[in-house]
Structures are given as C-alpha cells and as structure tokens.
C-alpha cells in the first residue's frame, strides 16, 4: 500500500473512522440495532428517489442502522417508528402541501432530531454527504434562513462527535457561528 495513492489513503482513513465510530457507538448505546442490509439501502433509495452518499451507506451498513450518535441518536434508515425515510417523506409532504414557501429541499435526508423542530440532515447531492442543520425557530416564511452547514462532510461531522467538540456539547465553544447554507434559497425555490 503506497502513500501516494489518494484513494488508498482515503479508504484507509474511512476504514479507521468507521472503526472508531463503531467502538464509540458500542460503548455509548445501550443496544445497537444490526447494520442495514444492502437490500434495505436499495429499498430506501428506491422509496426516496435518490442515491445515498457512499460514506452514509458505509456508516449504516458497517456500524448500525441508526441508534447511535450525538444526543438523540441517528434515525434508522427503514423500519418501525420514526425513520430517516419516513421523516423525509413527512417533511417533503408538508413542504408540498403548505400554501407557504417550501421549507424542506429535495435530496436532503433528515438523520437526527435535535428536538424543538431542529434536525441534522445529510445533503445527498453532496458526494461527501454534507451535514446540514435545520433550525426553524423564529423563521416565518424565508425558510432558507433556517438552513446551516454543520459540517462539509459526514466524515467531518462524525469526527466532531468522536472528539466531543460539536456545538451540541455542554462544553462547546459558543463563539463559533454556524455558516448559513448558501444553496438553501436556490434548492428551496427549485422545489425538487
């Protein structure tokens, strides 16, 4: 294995990241669900109508089908109760049925409910799986103001969780402002 091939290094880094995520998930979750199967991922993509980023697929296939992660933990992809697929469909249905402006863009999968209407969501149009924060509190009708970039990549977001340095941590540095998601206005106006 040579250090000059970026793909080999990236794969090794992702393998290491998933190993560390699996270890923390096992240490912090009471009982992890089994990993998602290839069939479940394919079924989710079929229902959603878009592909999931490779890093997201690996996370759910190699660690667990949700049930771990920051605070309220990641939704399962499919299954009983609240799942990433069900919540996405609910948010999109609400967005399409409201007379008001659309609040939830296409291809943005909610993965964690922070409470108070806030969600962590993965932009599935981003190959790195950018993680967005939907924070609707105080927003009347300009929904693009409710969207922020929590991390440019799912891998970076997971690293933040592993290092306990996320904005949601009790000892978090409150001086760090989250950057607005620049694509929000355009993606919301597109409606699809």
From TrEMBL:
Transmembrane segments: none annotated. InterPro entries: Knr4/Smi1-like_dom, Knr4/Smi1-like_sf. Gene3D superfamilies: SMI1/KNR4-like. Residues 35-164 form the Knr4/Smi1-like domain. It comes from the Bacteria. This is SMI1/KNR4 family protein SUKH-1. Residues 170-192 are annotated as: Disordered.
């Amino acid at each position: 294995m040579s250090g000059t091939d970026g793909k080999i290094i990236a794969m090794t880094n992702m393998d290491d990241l998933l190993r560390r995520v699996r270890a923390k998930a096992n240490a912090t979750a009471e009982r992890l669900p089994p990993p998602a199967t290839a069939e479940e991922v394919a079924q989710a993509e079929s229902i959603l109508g878009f592909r999931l980023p490779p890093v997201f697929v690996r996370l759910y296939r190699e660690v667990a089908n949700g049930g771990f992660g920051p605070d309220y933990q990641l939704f399962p992809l499919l299954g009983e109760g609240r799942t990433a697929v069900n919540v996405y469909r609910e948010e999109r249905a609400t967005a399409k049925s409201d007379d008001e402006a659309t609040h939830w863009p296409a291809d943005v999968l909610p993965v964690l409910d922070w409470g108070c209407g806030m969600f962590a969501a993965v932009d599935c149009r981003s190959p790195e799986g950018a993680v967005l924060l939907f924070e609707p509190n105080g927003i009347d009708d300009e929904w693009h103001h409710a969207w922020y970039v929590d991390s440019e990549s799912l891998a970076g977001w997971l690293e933040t969780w592993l290092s306990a340095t996320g904005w949601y941590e009790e000892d978090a540095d409150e001086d760090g402002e989250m950057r607005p998601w620049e694509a929000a206005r355009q993606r919301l106006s597109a409606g699809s």
